[in-house]
Design a protein that fits this description.
Elements: H1 10-19, E1 23-26, H2 34-43, E2 48-51, E3 60-63, E4 67-73, E5 81-86, E6 89-95, H3 101-116, E7 124-129, H4 138-141, H5 145-156, H6 171-178, E8 182-183, H7 184-188, E9 213-217, E10 225-230, H8 234-239, E11 245-249
Parallel strand pairs: 6-7
Antiparallel strand pairs: 1-3, 2-3, 4-5, 5-6, 7-9, 8-9, 10-11
Helix pairs in contact: 3-6
């Protein structure tokens, strides 16, 4: 929320109050400390908060319910992830490497292994910025625009390695789906056509619409998903560089 220049992120806090989530996963919580995150979260009625780290591009997790058995995983990760138990759910907040497809593959293996070794693995939620596209949206990418964008980025920045032999990489999400996890947005919106981008960039001339922010749930939770949405409103249109994803679960 870089564009929210209010001293205490007042606009963001007001927006979260309107959404009234039980659990909130955050990305790139830059320049926050554990204390400042806790202070902000209390203002939107989340007395519990966990920050992955205080440098770089940390993820964070806030909740109305106690966040317990917290694991902060940084080893072998570009940004890292948080795993915790909240109200009986096995919750993972992730942010995969933005630059290299092979690193994302390594990271998702660690994430999936961490998820499946928990006692409550059948109530798993994996959410965040995967920096990877899904074959579930393959028809939308058939026009070649996203491939063109990745080719261009690779030419502009030597550290970008997001294509496999010049082709799009769907492998990260294939690994997740092969483990039995459900993409909650596609579950409720199987024909969504990205009439507006779900990922925004300042460089509009090179922007190609893509979906890289996901919420997955374990297979046994499929019937519990009541609603899902990509939230596009006046606030997110201006203040966020990605559109947030939400879901409603039946307890």
């Amino acid at each position: 929320m870089t564009l929210d220049t209010t001293a205490n992120k007042d606009l963001f806090v007001d927006w979260v109050k309107q959404q009234n989530p039980d659990i909130l996963a955050l990305q790139e919580v830059n320049k926050f400390t554990q204390l400042t995150l806790e202070t902000m979260a209390r203002r939107y009625n989340h007395p519990y908060a966990v920050l992955l780290k205080e440098k770089g591009f940390p993820v964070a997790l806030t909740s109305k319910y106690p966040i317990v058995n917290v694991q902060k995983v940084l080893d072998n990760m570009h940004h890292g992830f948080i795993r915790a138990d909240i109200a009986g759910f096995n919750v993972l907040v992730v942010h995969l490497s933005p630059h290299k497809y092979w690193k994302r593959h390594e990271e998702i293996e660690v994430i999936l292994q961490t998820a499946t070794t928990q006692a409550n693995q059948h109530k798993t939620i994996i959410m965040g910025d995967f920096n990877a596209i899904s074959i579930a949206d393959g028809d939308f990418y058939a026009n070649g625009k996203i491939l063109e964008k990745y080719v261009d980025m690779g030419k502009r920045y030597a550290y970008h390695d997001n294509l496999i032999d010049g082709k799009l990489d769907f492998g990260v999400h294939e690994k997740i789906v092969n483990q039995g996890y459900i993409d909650i947005f596609k579950l409720k919106h199987p024909t969504y056509d990205f009439t507006r981008p779900t990922l925004k960039t300042a460089d509009e001339g090179r922007n190609a619409s893509s979906r890289i922010d996901f919420i997955y749930v374990s297979k046994k939770m499929k019937s519990k998903v009541l609603e899902s949405a990509i939230i596009k409103d006046a606030f997110t249109n201006y203040y966020s560089d990605h559109y947030p994803v939400m879901m409603v679960l039946k307890r």
